[in-house]
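Appendix B, example 12.
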Amino acid sequence: MAQSTIRPESESKSPTSEASARGAAIYSQSWLLVIYDWWVLGIVSTYAWACSVPDYTLPWFRSNVRKGQHLDIGVGTGYYLAKSDLSGVQVTLADLNQDALDATKNRLVAEGKVKAEETTCILHDITRPLPASCPKFNSMSLYYLLHCMPGPVPAKTAIFSHLKHNLTADGVITGASILGKDVHHNLFGRVIMYFGNRGGMFDNRADNSAEFDEALREHFHEVETQVRGAIFLWKASKPKV
């Protein structure tokens, strides 16, 4: 697999891809990438979502990164990868936003986590199948991504119907997402939810753990989930292909 930025072939824009692009556009703002770790993963995760990153989502991430090929989808700032042991791991980054891809790759290289020539970036809408040049991955991660995707839970989880084909037979796919339904949101959380959904960064008012769990079990033989505060944590393995 070429170690470069892979750009998908030209394709017509669908309503889904345009809505996805709106959610990703905020990551083009360099100031947000600078404060993202402190604000989103520090203040908001702890006090709005009642799910401390160091206590819950980071250990969950670390425990599910496998040696071999790892695909991180919706890269943010690369925080989780930067805080993990990547020895023996070849990283592929996939995102709709080139700025986020560049910032994450540069961070990982600068911190000595990866080598630039061994790290692949894919500029890609994950609602569509991955480029044919992609390998089978030993692990995949989608952290704080699903709540940004447009549509109800069945529309979001349709991505598993093609992602599972890019996972090795013994691979694992894992993630964390903010729920909007059947969880308690404190005042801070309700404010973030309101402005996040109004501004197009989120589309998660109806997101709930039961539908996510059901969708995962439709595509994978082994599924483990838990809810911490307003965060849905999940991992799945043994794809049904």
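Confidence is low (pLDDT under 50) at residues 8-16, 21-25. The longest strand covers residues 167-178.
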